[in-house]
Design a protein that fits this description.
Length: about 400
């Protein structure tokens, strides 16, 4: 019997994404105690004496980050994930050269603190439970549960038989592969649900709350505190406690105006739009990206765009405004800022924004390494009033929201 382990690292979670100069960095590649979350997870399974084969599942856009994370480890080529967790697992199962009675562990990459003892218990539980098709790591619920409708508590749900599912989840290969074939197209949240839908019998292995999944900034900070080095020469009772790290919200507001001049197109969010005029400026006059850049710099407390790219400096004449925004994103990454959302409003009579809004939104999301649903691009007019109403130029305003780490004094 061969034991396989599938590590799922193809997720694109939006709650915990680090902006870097080269793009977004999903949570599984963020560092915890000097190592990526993914590598910590992989090393637990790679070191387990009973696991014969590891299969990683990644997003195709993360190839470089993945190679860096697992450098030096002897692993087979990763499998690309699908649109959902369910599809990603199915892709990995199809890749395995496994017999029906082989065992397969399925684990989330974002759970780096899984214990070898939990893996041992799962393997023992399935071997002993000859009537079972699988077992899952889980924690019995201890909190009181309420069913809420329209903001009103309608019912207290008995918790006696309720468990919180975690990973790893262990199955007999033939059974879980068959269950996934039947579940193609369904929207199920974990492999136990896939197995249940196929009528398989699944057991429980009690797990530890230490095996938590890192999905939020607070959980990331908790993981970093767990992995923080301890000076063995300092006794706990005499050590001065370090200030706890917390995450503070920041909001940045950007505003910019450019007047019209001769030409037949304007550049907004890096996209060229046909127009009866062009915008005048020292760079490419992308008023939209200038407003967003100023908003990001403002949220960071890093001055404004003119401080970093003075209009008196000839090297920025005609420069792409993407350079300015990428510079601000680099500063955000250096400060470990977590960018969450950008809201951009363009104020103009010409050109018509609506036909190009999606392209502008997509490009802005790409530049900031944000999911599309975290970027808003809107347009309005001033009903013929003011310089925009007279078609003399375009104004733009942007609001950025992010979180930054801050040391809060104890007491």
């Amino acid at each position: 019997m061969t034991i396989h382990a599938i590590i799922l690292a193809a997720g694109r979670g939006t709650r915990l994404v680090q902006v870097t100069p080269s793009g977004s960095l999903p949570k599984q590649y963020l560092e915890v105690g000097g190592q990526s979350i993914l590598r910590r997870t992989v090393e637990v399974f790679a070191a387990h004496s009973e696991i014969d084969h590891l299969q990683l599942v990644i997003h195709p856009d993360d190839e470089m980050a993945y190679r860096q994370a697992v450098a030096g480890l002897s692993l087979p080529d990763p499998v690309y994930g699908g649109e959902s967790r369910q599809e990603s697992v199915f892709n990995a199962l199809m890749q395995l050269n496994a017999a029906a009675d082989d065992l397969v562990l399925i684990h989330d990459a974002a759970r780096p603190f899984v214990s070898p003892a939990t893996i041992d218990a799962a393997l023992a539980g399935l071997r002993d439970g000859v009537h079972l098709h699988g077992v899952i790591a889980a924690i019995p619920l201890t909190d009181t549960l309420k069913r809420v409708e329209d903001g009103i508590v309608r019912e207290t749900v008995p918790r006696a038989d309720l468990w919180r599912a975690q990973t790893p989840q262990l199955f007999r290969f033939g059974a879980i592969l068959s269950a996934h074939r039947k579940a193609v197209g369904a929207q199920l949240t974990d492999d136990a649900a896939v197995a249940e839908a196929a009528g398989l019998k699944i057991g429980i292995v009690p797990d530890s709350a230490a095996n938590f999944k890192i999905t939020t900034i607070e959980e990331l900070e908790r993981a970093r505190q767990i992995c923080a080095p301890v000076d063995p020469g300092i006794m706990p009772e005499t050590e001065t406690p370090a200030p706890p790290t917390t995450w503070l919200p920041r909001t940045g507001l950007g505003f910019d105006v450019h007047r019209f001049g001769p030409g037949n197109a304007v550049t907004l969010c890096g996209i060229s739009l046909p127009c009866s005029h062009s915008l005048v400026g020292h760079s490419d006059a992308d008023v939209a990206l200038h407003a967003v850049t100023d908003a990001l710099l403002g949220a960071l407390g890093a001055g404004d765009i003119g401080d970093h790219f003075p209009p008196s400096d000839p090297q920025w004449r005609g420069a792409s405004s993407e350079i300015f925004l990428r510079h601000a994103a680099t500063l955000a990454a250096e400060q470990r800022a977590m960018l969450h959302h950008v809201d951009l409003t363009l104020i103009c009579e010409i050109p018509k924004i609506a036909p190009h809004r999606q392209a502008m939104r997509d490009n802005l999301a790409r530049l900031l390494a944000l999911p599309a649903n975290a970027v808003s691009v809107k347009a309005t007019t001033t009903e013929g009033l003011g310089f925009t109403g007279r078609k003399e130029g375009i104004a733009a305003q942007a609001v950025i929201t992010l979180q930054m780490p801050a040391q809060i004094p104890v007491g």
